[in-house]
Amino acid sequence: MTSNKTIVFVEIVGDSTPTMKKLNLENNLSNIRKELKKNINDMNILLFAIKVGQIFAKTEPDDENDTILNDIIFENSGSKFLYLMKNSNPSWKYLNEKCKLDFGRITSFDGIKEASSKAFKMRDCEFKPIDSKGYKKGRLEFKSEEDWMKKTNLFFGIDINVQNFIGLGLSIGKSKDENFKDEVNSTYVYTEIGKASLKFNKENLELTSHFSNDVKNAIKSKEHNKFREIIDKYGQFVPTEVILGGRVYFKGVKTLSENSTNKTKESSVNMNFGPPIARIGGNSSDSERKSDFYSFDHMKILGGSPPVDENFDEKVWNKSLEDYRTWDCIELKNPINIFKLLPDDIYKEAFKSIGKRILRTIVKDYEYRLDNPERYQIIELTDEESKIILNKDADCDIFATVVDDDENSKKVFFNCQILKNQNAKPSIIIHVIQKEPQKRICKLKIGIMIIGYDVDFNFINSNVSVELLVNNNYNFNDGLMANNLFLGIPVLEYFNHLNDSITIGHNFRELNNELIIEPFSYCSKKHCYHFSNLPQFSFYTIVIKNYSNIYESRILEYPKKDEIKFSDKCPKYISMYFSEADSYLPVFMNQKSEKVYLKHFCNKCEKCKQEPEYNIKLKTYSIL
Phi and psi (nearest 5°) for 18? Predict the structure, then answer.
């Protein structure tokens, strides 16, 4: 079998030592470049050249697909030569490879970390040089732990997406470093030289087969731990805008202002590098002036050439940044979750395979006027609170609970229902049950739980998961009944004068591995219960799994005992369970500050006349 390859001597202009390589003369230059990359590390900063007499003419990268190797070969004494020239203009391909710009990243206490494996390959980008505005000097301070984490991980702008990525790194870092508060209270001075910006989007990225296969296998497994492993391997996010250049900053700075007359003519700033305390000064002049000097105990450099000894010369460092091969990432912007960069169909399969999660918990303060003749009030969510709900992919539902801060008002009961119209965001209906209207204002705390698909993968590290059920009767095995918490709430599709005075309550009954939901209603106008002809509603039950850290269970003998006291005032979701076959009583719960009261609003029914005792199990889930 004959080979189509020919011996070619490859020489970089300015380097007197050529290398021999067998290449196909009919291949285009794009394929030749791929072949040469196997042996030449800096191939991304080299251009193909044609020798014309004693000079060399470079070829444009855009022409490489349409030019074959034989077109630029130089022949001398029967030998074939291929010439390469160093590109004096910045090459985004070189910088992408050097700085791993298309790799995923993970936030950490020690700074941003690059993933070990590549999920995507960058095909194109928008690459722009930065003018003199890229030179900055300033002080870097921190407003909070989160702000410290953001800036340590090279996020300096205002970006709501960044908050989603810093939580894990912050929690890990705090557990490892006892001096974390000192870090947050520290101050830096810095010099920054931005040389270029690089931007790209989803369309500029090519999905790697390894990442695609790992995600598809995780989807099939339906185990959220598999997605954790993917993040560990491929990163949390990809920054879609990067500022390249250099930054040097100094920690532990104290300003020592002094009036001085400086007669020296220093040409640059000099300072000790490393542990010894040093002094930073500006360029001097022969005139009398006020000088600011800084002492410091730590320095870090991103980009540029490092000092050759313990002295840092800013002028030399600035000069080194004229060579784009010394640039580094100095700021990250517009991060996108690594799963959101997947094709839409795979992305949706991924978050649905994990199941629904508790996406957000909210506690709202609300003043309720008891003399309101309507006997109810509707609580709307703000635009910020309902933002995730309006994301159709998340398929969200809300649960609510209410606490009255006045624990002495035992005769006033509040109850929550959800109003969910198809064409509007859900809202919360708060009913009040009282014998006679009172002229006072109750200060309520309304707990709201939003559940849905975790489309941002923000809760991938949480073991708590939920399952939504819309029915009135369920069969479970012993393990599922014993080890999970069930919470329920009635959901109305419409609300008008026909049902505005009706409060819907419910009890759970555990019997023979069966969870039975027993709804009832109470009319606040007629002061009576209804067990049939209830208003039209759906009953939503969520099963909360792996919740042991925020759960407790109490047994209460009602009516002998009608209250339970907790150790805090935080709103809680509480479910009542009757466990005996004939044990059933329509009971409302009322959270009053640190206590929970139970009440059956009737003195006429047969159950009241019998005056039995009921063993009621209360299971509570803390909202915070």
Answer: -75, 160
Two structure tokens written together for 130: 């930065």
Residue 551, pLDDT score: 60
> Which range of residues forms the domain containing residue 370?
355-453
**pLDDT for res 80:** 92
- Which domain-ending residue is among 62, 88, 114? 88
Residue-level pLDDT at 164: 64
Nearest-angstrom CA–CA distance, 359 and 451: 5
Q: Answer yes or no: do 203 and 307 share one domain.
A: yes
Domain shared by 403 and 523, yes or no: no
> What is the reported pLDDT for 159?
62
Question: What are the start-end ranges of the H helices in 100-179?
Answer: 145-152, 163-176
Q: 358: which 2 tokens? A: 């508790």
CA torsion sign for 61, 66, 70, 72 is negative
- At residue 287, the pLDDT reads 33
Q: Which residues of the chain have pLDDT under 50?
A: 1, 172-176, 253-296
Q: Which two tokens stand for residue 576?
A: 């009542």
Tell me, yes or no, whether 402 lies in a domain.
yes
pLDDT at 517: 82
Tell me, yes or no, whether 544 and 513 share the same domain. yes
What angle is formed at CA 551 by the lines to CA 545 and CA 552, rounded to 5 degrees? Answer: 135
For residue 308, tell me if it sits in a domain.
yes
pTM here is: 0.77
Distance separating alpha carbons of residues 121 and 588, to the nearest angstrom: 59
In a shared domain, residues 149 and 244: yes
Q: What is the C-alpha separation between 578 and 122, in angstroms, rounded? A: 60
Largest CA distance in the chain: 118
Report pLDDT for 266: 36
- Considering only CA atoms, which of 251, 244, 252, 247 is closest in space to residue 301? 247
- 469 and 614 belong to one structural domain: yes
Show which of 390, 419, 453 is a domain's final residue: 453
Residue 345 lies in a domain: no
Number of domains in the chain: 4
Give pLDDT tens digits for 547-576: 655 566 777 666 667 777 877 777 788 888
Q: Same domain, yes or no, for 372 and 498?
A: no
| d(C-alpha 187, C-alpha 185), whole Å | 7
The letter for the amino acid at 570 is: C
Q: Is residue 344 part of a domain?
A: no
What pLDDT, on the 0 to 100 scale, is given for residue 411? 76
Is 236 in the same domain as 287?
Answer: yes
301 and 411 inside one domain: no
pLDDT of residue 607: 57
Cis peptide before 559 (omega within 30 of 0): yes
| Residue 560 in tokens | 């002998």
Element (H, E) at 127: strand 126-129
The three-point CA angle 231-232-233 to 5° equals 90
